[in-house]
Amino acid sequence: MRTSTASWVILSVCTVTSAFGQAAGLKAPDSFASITDRAERSRALFLEASKVIQHPRCMNCHPGGERPTQGSDMHPHSPMVVRGADDKGAIGMHCTTCHQLGNFEPSGVPGHPLWHVAPKAMAWQGKSLGQICEQIKDPARNGGKTLAAIQQHMAHDSLVGWGWHPGGNRESAPGTQAQLGALIQAWIDSGAACPAP
Which residues, other chains included, contact 98 with Cβ-Cβ below 8 Å and sequence gap of 6+? Predict the structure, then answer.
């Protein structure tokens, strides 16, 4: 009887934890339908998407300086590496020297075939959410992308998708990549308004 009671308590705690984790994810775009002012709804959608955009899984790859950061506390990358001329590391120490095709669990080193940092023009660290939003919309600072291409990048790019499969004991980005893509599409459809800088 004690064993079954203990099992029930553990199952209940896991269920509550799982439900809380889902509740703490991302809201669906239709959650914002009651906001009648289009620009206000658009800003609210982007604010929801910012739970991912400003999460360490994304911010670590959008460093403001020459050195990427790592971990949930966004500490400087160790060992010491720099972005390099092509944003893939310095000569002789490219990102893919250590970051292989996938996460390498024995050492805890994350991986992906296209591992690199975002170009400096696309740096997000040290910027307000409003500044990041304006930058995302600006083709001169987003790699020449249209809003449709930005949505595709966030919704389908496999390197962005790594943020939900970081391996090890790393915290994944909130929600799912599909949910982020839906929020970004709804933000675009509602006028792509940005929060105040």
Answer: 109
Token readout for 153 is 């990048």
- Evaluate whether 168 touches 105 at the Cβ level (below 8 Å): yes
The span from the CA of 20 to the CA of 90, in Å, is 42
What is the tens place of the pLDDT at every residue in 13-36? 333 333 333 335 999 999 999 999
- What DSSP character marks residue 111? -
Considering all CA atoms of the chain, what is the largest pairwise distance in Å, rounded to the nearest integer?
67
What is the Cα–Cα distance from 89 to 100, expressed in whole angstroms?
A: 14
Residue type, 17: T
The strand pairing partners of 94, in sequence order, are 89
Predicted TM-score of the model (pTM): 0.84
